[in-house]
Amino acid sequence: MGNLESAAENLDAAMNYFNRAVDIRIGKGDAAASQLALTYLCIGRVHYLRNDFDEASRWFAQSEALFVRTEGADTQFMSHVHHAYGNVEYEQKRWRSAIQSYNECLKIALAGTAIHPITAAAYYSLGCVEFKLHHHEVAKGYLDKARAIAELRSPARDDGTIARILWKTAQVMEDDPYGTYAQEAALLRTRAEIARRTLTGRGEGDLISIDENGDPDADEEEVSYDALVPMYFR
């Protein structure tokens, strides 16, 4: 229930559920240690969504310590912890630290679950950081890898993950100073928008505002594509 409330941005309600889960799992001792570590990770995400990054990092550290003790440092759970650390660093524009965390996530994910959504998420996140650093070709390379995984997982339709990757790739291409990819970028943006409209028409994600020129608000546009992806893989 806590995750459902988090996804709906009912963060106070989510925290209440997670705190109750902590009490229950602590009461069960070592038998519930892994579930407790996962709950700590979820609590950290709530603080992250509140932009309380120091508190988020504190809970992620508790989750990491418990996962390492109970599951090991290179298990699938840890890829999610490293991705969460990366998101905290990204929001604070600590690009190098974000890259380090996303690479740690990717290393674990590739070793065990190469086509898992967390692997695509790591590639996507690395692409976003490299775009911020104006490394267009590197960013595009990471986004292409994310797209390859996403399309392998959803071969029959453009799901929310694919739509977001297409949109971000178009952004990177549009920002190329030489206009090398202008035509391809336009095609990708159109495909992404068709997918987004289809998905939101089915009740997935959020609607966005349009300005006086008929263009989508840039901040809302990004949020609308993020909303098409499960919270754990944003």
Taking the alpha carbons of the first and last residues, their distance comes to 19 Å
Order of helices and strands: HHHHHHHHHHH
Percent of residues in beta strands? under 5%
Characterize the largest beta sheet: strand count, sense, and whether it forms a barrel.
none
The helix/strand class is: mainly alpha
> How many β-strand stretches?
0
**Alpha-carbon Rg, integer:** 18 Å
Shape: globular
Q: Determine the mean pLDDT.
A: 91
Instruction: Tell me the number of helical segments per DSSP (H or I, 4 or more residues long).
Output: 11
Oligomeric grouping of the chains: single chain
Indicate the percent of residues in helices.
Answer: over 70%
Poorly predicted regions: none
Topology, please?
Elements: H1 2-7, H2 11-27, H3 33-49, H4 53-70, H5 76-91, H6 95-112, H7 117-132, H8 136-153, H9 160-174, H10 182-201, H11 218-226
